């Protein structure tokens, strides 16, 4: 049996538990909230001439505030939720697509991510094809062909991190999946062995796919700060000792954390808000300077603050190797040395919002409020049907002008 067919059969046979469905609802609320929080972002106008699903997914990822599947290092919901909403699907369809994305991402493994692939997009395009196929009512064979038809678009590079290219790659992945499902419904076919060959070509850790376990094995991490997930733990650690520190007294900041935990943090001297979202050094600066590192902390002006620049220059980083290979490997230890020689130190293993330390209802509500959303209206009444209407109302797609001949 080909991997495409095995995944299609698993998706069609999925019977979600109440826990699965609760996770799907949280993912819907979280994704809609972070998408609407970006509705005034400059990228929204740029992407409004794209397809609906690409427009929504790009907008949902531009603030880098959406959830993350830790084991596969993929942003599952920002690909799958817009796909399901655009195709008129349900929570069950979301869980099928999300489950396939988690499993493909796990098969690709950390080595795939460590080589610089944007795993959200490599795993996201074929997974979006599954979510769209079920939403559109395709059968198992059609779904398998949709997965194969999405493979040519299954790519993305981490070098785009800190630029508009990152959220655009996510939008392209969602669009590819929906397009593949429409093509399969219209009768398009591919060789189903394409997926097996593709996994080998991109250096997957495992060629076989594990279809056991819950709908989304390992669950999803929720971000409480609007920046790369690799920054959540350092921010949390620094915030725990912030009250002990005066900015003028700080002489040096030392960070010790496994190398893999900061792999996406490629900007060491950020100058823009987007670059600041992928900077370990700026994570520590905003944790010290801002009462709460929120949207205002990741603007160009905030990153360019003289105080922030001064703190960034005080940071030195030790990156020991570890046998673990994920963004929460080991723990992070932060030592802040004062001019008088004294130190404040903090060690943190799990940031709030991680799968093993899920957000409390109040933390989740605070996040939704920070996105400019009325909490009761969103959490109590949001459904997969009216979620699509809400996005269409708030993020309309412009009609494309006909290109001249």
UniProtKB/TrEMBL annotation:
GO terms for molecular function: lyase activity. Residues 60-196 form the MmgE/PrpD N-terminal domain. Pfam families: MmgE_PrpD_C, MmgE_PrpD_N. InterPro entries: MmgE/PrpD_sf (IPR036148), MmgE/PrpD_sf_1 (IPR042183), MmgE/PrpD_sf_2 (IPR042188), MmgE_PrpD (IPR005656), MmgE_PrpD_C (IPR045337), MmgE_PrpD_N (IPR045336). Residues 225-371 form the MmgE/PrpD C-terminal domain. Belongs to the PrpD family. This is 2-methylcitrate dehydratase. It comes from Rhodococcus wratislaviensis NBRC 100605.
């Amino acid at each position: 049996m080909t991997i495409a067919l095995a995944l299609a059969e698993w998706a069609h046979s999925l019977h979600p538990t109440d826990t699965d469905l609760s996770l799907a609802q949280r993912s819907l609320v979280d994704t809609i909230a972070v998408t609407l929080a970006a509705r005034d972002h400059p990228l929204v106008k740029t992407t409004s001439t794209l397809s609906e699903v690409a427009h929504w997914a790009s907008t949902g990822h531009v603030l880098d505030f959406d959830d993350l599947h830790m084991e596969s290092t993929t942003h599952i919901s920002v690909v799958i939720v817009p796909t399901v909403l655009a195709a008129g699907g349900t929570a069950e369809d979301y869980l099928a697509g999300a489950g396939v994305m988690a499993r493909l991402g796990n098969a690709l493994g950390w080595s795939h991510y460590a080589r610089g692939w944007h795993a959200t997009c490599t795993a996201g395009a074929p997974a979006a094809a599954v979510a769209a196929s079920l939403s559109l009512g395709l059968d198992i064979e059609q779904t398998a062909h949709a997965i194969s038809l999405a493979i040519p678009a299954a790519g993305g590079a981490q070098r785009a991190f800190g630029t508009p290219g990152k959220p655009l790659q996510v939008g392209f992945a969602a669009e590819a999946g929906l397009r593949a499902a429409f093509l399969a419904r219209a009768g398009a076919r591919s060789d189903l062995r394409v997926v097996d060959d593709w996994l080998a070509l991109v250096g997957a850790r495992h060629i076989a796919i594990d279809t056991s376990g819950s709908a989304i094995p390992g669950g999803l991490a929720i971000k409480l700060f609007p920046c790369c997930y690799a920054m959540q733990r350092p921010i949390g650690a620094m915030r725990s000792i912030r009250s002990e520190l005066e900015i003028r007294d700080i002489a040096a900041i030392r960070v010790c954390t496994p190398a893999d935990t900061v792999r996406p943090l490629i900007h060491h001297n950020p100058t823009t808000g987007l670059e600041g979202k992928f900077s370990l050094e700026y994570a520590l600066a905003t944790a010290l300077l801002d009462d709460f590192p929120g949207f205002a902390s990741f603007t160009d002006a905030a990153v360019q603050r003289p105080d922030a620049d001064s703190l960034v220059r005080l940071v030195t980083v030790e990156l020991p190797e570890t046998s673990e290979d994920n963004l929460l490997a080991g723990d992070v230890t932060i030592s802040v040395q004062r001019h008088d020689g004294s130190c404040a130190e903090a060690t943190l293993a799990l940031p709030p919002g991680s799968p093993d330390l899920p957000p409390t209802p109040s933390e989740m509500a605070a996040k939704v409020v920070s996105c400019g959303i009325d909490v009761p209206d969103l959490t109590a009444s949001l459904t997969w049907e009216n979620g699509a209407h809400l996005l269409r109302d708030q993020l309309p797609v412009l009609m494309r002008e006909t290109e001249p001949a």
